[in-house]
Amino acid sequence: MPQVKIVAKNFMDMVASLPALKLDKLFQNAFICEAILRSLPPLAKKYVLHLLYIDVAVPGKSLDDWVLTDGLSKHKVAIDRLIQLRVFTETFDRKKEVSYRLNPTFQLNIQKHIKHGGILPRQPLSSSGSLRLPSLEELDAYAANQWECFLLHLISSSEAEKSTNFSSSMMKIFQRGLLSQRDEKEPPRLTEGGFQFLLMDTNAQLWYIIREYITNSEEHGLDSADLISFLLELSFHATGEAYSLNTLNDIQQTIIRDLADLGLVKLQKGMRESWFIPTKLATNLSISLSDTSSRKQGFVVIETNFRMYAYSTSKLHSEILRLFSRVEYQLPNLIVGAITRESLYKAFQNGITAEQIISFLQQNAHPRVAQRIPSVPENVTDQIRLWESDLNRVETTPAHFFDEFPSRDVFEAACDFARECGCLLWENSKKMWLVTKFESFPQMKEFLRRHKQ
Amino acid sequence: MSPPVPPELLTDDVSLLMVLIDTNPYFWSSIKQSFPFSKFLSDVLAFLNATLLLNQLNQVVVIATGYNSCGYVFDSAGLVNARAESCLPELEKFLKNDASMSTEDTVNGVGHSLLSGSLSMALCYIQRIFRSGAGHPQPRILCLHGSPDGPGQYVAVMNAIFSAQRSMVPIDSCVIGAQHSAFLQQASHITGGVYLKPQLLEGLLQNLLTVYATDMHSRNFIQLPKPLGVDFRAS
């Protein structure tokens, strides 16, 4: 059995956690085989190629012989991954020796691909008079804009100008874990997880949303295997080419509307038919299958006097900055603000930590200051940490308060008893007051009852 | 040239594979019976497709090593869903052109192909990639060679080898001809590449897939064939 526990960390983990039957169905689609092969760790890819033209099971021992001692751990990871994704099937012989062979459907599809070539899922429309395709720059801008609009909608629905196609129930699902609402009247607040989400790069954010979308797909009547296969198929389309919507089946047509909201595709309507144009977000889907930790270019400059200049036109950025700073004025491409104690206290109350704010500022430092070490002035980072520890000066512990002891003896005996069991928090012998920890109340009660007798 | 790839997308195993194909017509006609050029080509194309399949950022460049000339016949950079088959028209044009350059009617034996020329072209291409920006795929050169070594090219080939060594580009070689090639033995030995002369040419594709598809990252972890001996003679 594979030793790696399945954590739905990236897309392929989700594929791996599908039931075997669905997974085998996915393999019938050549694109999925291709995407799965690409998502594998380098060594695993090698093993697939090794076994591509071998039709019998290969003993595990001879696989082990391929590896140098340095690569043993990687070898193990690779094999486990292959088994998890059911690309390798294991068989045990009488002596409990394991042998592997490729999943026949998978093998055939890959063989076909390298010998005869894949067929495109659908042909792009030829550009004719009625078809005016956006340039790649326009498309990128469209995708970025669409994505930002979605994010803004996600974190504060009131700020967004445009509503999305997503039903409010779907939005609620996305917001789960990112926002928390104490009661109905209060606007929802960003949780710690939500703040971390905003710090991630677009691809990672996209995956988070897509993942939620897939895991909850069954609720709105979509099969997760259909959804996964369509998403993978989409990543094999060419960016900026138009594809007719008529080539999609009904399920895919529903999906594509949702994807348009996320900026993965741009929908356009012509005289007679409609078409969709995949953006870079869509075609990068299968690239970003592996965990990449890239960063967007930074935009924030922090001065030693706690002034903050953020060169951004994005409304989303201004919303994020507003979470922990006081925004003073906003120019078309510049947000000017200050980090104050009040603004930080507000952030701390929302569960955002000082470290998160500092790492956000550091990761998004404007290129001009990013080369400087430290990129955020030390006195500012120190002060942010100090203000946070200010809040933590007082520690609260649930407790029980005892008074009106019948006699000083009883009081002192009670104090000794509390001290012995380590639950004494505070005593005042003059007034005969005693405070103990909340959880030791039954013991104290029992003790006092015995003393009364 | 393709637009530079954002460095964060370049994972460890992204490779740039420069494949030098021996197209010396005299050599191929000499082994026509046992291993025709068409069979060779179909194996190589399948191998190239497999390489492109492994990672969408993998890049494959094919250089034909002819009898009189050499030339780029395929570059997958900037192509979406690139297929190695698309090099065929270009290759055919190259072969015609190469044949038309021949002045003599008959050649003594099978002649030599211009290995030094195509090696230099591959290295030039790699240098251009190196200088294009911060992120670039890991380059390696694969020589699929059949013709015997040309003594006249000794100095030029050695220069190319040392230049590859300096820029840490391994030269893998797969010898298709009957004899071992001292040039390629040395090339692979000096640059840390793999030298192999397959026993059975029918299994060329399996050889290519198991040995030569190994990217630079995986080479740290995988056993690859070790040379039995290197012929260091000049020529």
Query: What is the mean pLDDT of chain B?
Result: 86
Indicate the proportion of strand residues of chain A.
5-15%
The profile of the biggest β sheet of chain B is:
6 strands, mixed
Number of DSSP strands of chain A? 15
H/E element sequence of chain B? EHHEEHHEHEHEH
| Domain tally of chain B | 1
Which runs of chain A of at least 5 residues are low in confidence (pLDDT < 50)?
1-8, 289-295
Helix-strand makeup class of chain B: alpha/beta
Task: Based on Cα principal axes, name the global outline of chain A.
Answer: extended
Q: Which percent bin holds the helix content of chain B?
A: 25-40%
Record the strand order, biggest sheet of chain A: 9-10-12-11
Which range does the strand content of chain B fall in? 15-25%
CATH architectural name of chain B? 3-Layer(aba) Sandwich
Largest sheet of chain A: 4 strands, antiparallel
Count of helical regions of chain B? 7
Describe the structure.
The complex is a heterodimer of chains A (453) and B (235). With 453 residues, chain A is of the alpha+beta class. Chain A folds into four domains: 106 residues, Arc Repressor Mutant, subunit A, CATH 1.10.10; 154 residues, no CATH class; 92 residues, no CATH class; 54 residues, Alpha-Beta Plaits (2-Layer Sandwich), CATH 3.30.70. Helix content of chain A is 47%, strand content 13%. In chain A, strands 9-10-12-11 form a four-stranded antiparallel sheet, covered by helices on one side. In chain A, a hairpin with a 5-residue loop joins strand 2 and strand 3. In chain A, helix 4 packs across helix 6, helix 16 crosses helix 19 and helix 20 packs antiparallel against helix 21. The longest helix of chain A is centred in the N-terminal third of the chain and has 20 residues. Chain A is extended, with a radius of gyration of 30 Å. The N and C termini of chain A lie far apart (64 Å). The N terminus of chain A is likely disordered. Chain B is an alpha/beta fold. Chain B has a single domain, classed as Rossmann fold, CATH 3.40.50.410. Chain B is built from seven helices and six strands, in the order E-H-H-E-E-H-H-E-H-E-H-E-H. In chain B, strands 3-2-1-4-5-6 form a six-stranded mixed sheet, with helices on both faces. In chain B, helix 5 links the parallel strand 4 and strand 5. In chain B, helix 2 packs parallel to helix 7. The radius of gyration of chain B is 17 Å and the shape is globular. The mean pLDDT of chain B is 86. At the A-B interface, helix 3, helix 4 and helix 7 of A face helix 2 and helix 7 of B.
